[in-house]
Fold:
Amino acid sequence: MSGFDLSGLTASFSGKRVIGPLSLQVNPGDKIALVGKSGAGKSTLIRLIHERVNRDSSLVPQDLGLVNALSVFHNVFMGQLDKHATWYNTVTLARPFAKDRAEVTALLQSLEMNEKLWTPTASLSGGQRQRVAIARALYRNAAVLLADEPVSALDGPMANSVMALLRDRFSTSIIALHDVDLALNYCTRIVGIQDGQVALDQPSEDLTSSDIMSLY
Amino acid sequence: MFSSPTVRTSFIFLAIALVGLLFADIAITASNPWRDLGNFFLGIVTPNFFSSEGLMTALLRTVAFAFVGVALGGVVGFLLALIYRSLPVRMFCAFVRAIHELFWALIFLQFFGFHPLTGVLAIAIPYAGIFAKVYSEILEEADPEPGRVLPPGTGNITAFLYTRIPDCWVKMRTYTAYRLECGLRSSAILGFVGLPTLGFYLEASFSQGLYSDAGAMLILFYVLIATMPLWVRPKLLPVYILGAPFFLGEGLPIVWGNVQRFFTEDIVPAPLRNGEGLAGVTPWLSDLMVNEAMPGIWNTIVLTQIALVATGILSLLAFPLISNHFGGPIRRNAGHVALVIARSTPEYILAYILLQLWGPSMLPAVVALALHNGGIIGHLIGRQTNSIKLRADAITGFNRYSWELVPRVYRAFLAFLFYRWEIIMRETAILGILGIYTLGFYVDSAIQNIRFDRAMVLILVTALLNIGVDALGRYIRRKLALQTMPTC
Amino acid sequence: MALNFIRKFVLSSFLFATAAASAETFVFTAIPDEDETKLVERFRGVADYLSEQLDVDVRYIPVKSYAAAVSAFRNNQVQLAWFGGLSGVQARRLVSGSEAIAQGVEDEAFETYFIANTNTGIKPADKLTELESQLKGKTFTFGSKGSTSGRLMPEFYVRDTFDSKPEDFFSRVGFSGNHTRTLRLVEAGTYDIGALNFQVWEKELGDGNIDTDAVQVIWKTPAYPDYQWTIRGDVNDRFGDGFKQRVTEALLNLDNPELLESFPRSGFIPASNDDYEPIRKTAEEIGILD
Structure:
């Protein structure tokens, strides 16, 4: 299952409705970019979708959800904690197994982060931290990617290569993006959010950046 | 100025303490206190490290009891922290930590006797209650976000180990290290009731006026605490913890029948034991309340309030000693040494020394409590001022103190002070053992007269009083919106 | 280096462990009525003597309070104790079958001395009533809370003579902890008046340890029975038939002058529980015993 039907999504914040009611049909293979002004409700929507499809998604939240005191390796490894027994995870905390070490190192290599394997994430820069969260999502290897501004702290070339990586590794994805060009280049479908409602829903090949700018 | 709730609260407490002074027994009764104090300082500067063959053993025992007690308390406290949400657990923890280590030791002495278990449990039990509270607060503050991104189906233990523990690890480690330091102090004073730690020898040499011997012991104790960062290394900890049980000394074997007797006979109120039935309990209890509990409570409260305000005043005077907004490095280093000595000396030992020198009254107790607690708070506040960046043209001297620094740290200062309120009261009660008429005096008297039923009731009263003050302190901190760090 | 350290550590812990694992040891204690170094010196001598006489390991353990001595005896962690009159009565009430087996020659007729700092100007008297106006409102220290000569008897005579509680009669009442300290505190003027064991006074005086310009005896109590050796009733089960008798004989035969001097007693004579009835009655009268 990698497509799903989301309907009746709502969210309120101190009595005021910020999202919905809103429906979204996600088909297998869709690579959706959520675009819109900041405050339009993209992050909230990502969270709502995550609550619905929890079991099968890799999540990159905006605040990353890293455990600062743990190393890069351990933060990435957390993507597969459910795959192992408790004793295995506990041993890994003290001394990782070679097989996992090799897998995580390879993954980090594709993000140009492999030399930081044992650095605690607390001492990384913003862009490096973002890549750790992405690596965790990749390692989790779920069918669906849910990401909230995953490349906001990365420079141009790195942002492009990470977006390409995400496009290739996940068949289905929903990514909140404020960068319109990245959205058009790496996603197949653009969903514009305005005042908590879907204001635009089109294949990206039918859109230009100026069409999207009207949302801002 | 008086419109500020923090200032108003401060003045209310100051007024209470001043009224308390009218009722308090404050005097120097020794005819020549300064000569004795002089002799004492002479002893400190001419320490005799070779007086007693037992001195090194006593130091070793002090460390061993601290390690075993704190480790056991830490493990149990950690487990309790995991279920700290449950009301009975919280009440249980509040109760066991409201009873001072020395009281626990006095209780266990009655049935375990001079077995190492007495000292270990006397430290471990109240510490478990404190650890449970602080660990649970730290765990609660952990960032919840990493837990949310975990793959569903991750086991509870795995999730806890990966998302909570790493985030809390540093704070828990810092707090545990601080507790270990407290544990060394607790362990040292257990000697005063007969366990083979430093206090045992300190009391002996002090009471005989062997100030050079006592000075040597105090100096060794300060060195032990000041060098903790050097010898308490994470890698050596397992060695210490596994090794410490072998260094507790042999003691005397436990006779288990005594334990049963203690719980089924000794602490049963005398009228019930003598078959007078419930009718006899009322006069027994009211006699105890009127003649011992009430005077004890009154004196404990009066002394606590005076000591609390004295602590506050002393902390405000002391923090510039280590603040880098005043003076040069030499004076600051001297300040550090002074505050380390003040806070490393257990109140009980300070009070004991001053009582010997100045004679019996509440004064030695007030000074001891203020020195120790003022040293702790002064140190914390002073350190806090070092992170304050003043504008380049800020005023200097006393104006800098009163305009730039005190207003900025005052809330933190009050938070620490109210946090220590309960601790000061717990100590005040225990100082009664030294002959000041607080609750500890009556507990000690009951034990000296082998009336454990009375002692238990009085210890219970002491615990309830502490729980009450703790609650009141928390209420005031909440009312004034004061934040506290648990590492105080 | 770390390994070397661990090795030493483990080695020394074994040394400690073996010391702990000794066979049946006969353990005794004593009330801490004097300076600790003196007690340890005195009772190590007694331990050596008893060990020689009885052919078992004998160990003395020092305690910090009278109650701790009683508790250790009651809890069977010690089997023999050198008690004061009151602590002995307390202990024997708590341990059925226990017996007073020997007392010092001087303990048949023991006394408490009331002493005063000379700055108070109090003059010695034969009757306590004569001192009423001079003593009233002064500061006063007992010895230990559980002491016979340092607390029970002086409190009894203060109550009996002045018909009021000590804390009402004097302006301040303290408990110094032991007799030597009472002496030092009154000598130093920390307290105006104190009450102590007459043997401690006489011995310190003989040794030249008292500044007689600073402190003097102002009143002596009538005689009462005091210190005694008390033994548990079940020692024969543990150490063999006739053990109690052998301990008693060993104590009565103790004639090492140095050891006797350290108590200080001229010798030990037989004692019985009934000898201490007056003490029990007095304690009940002033409410120390239930």
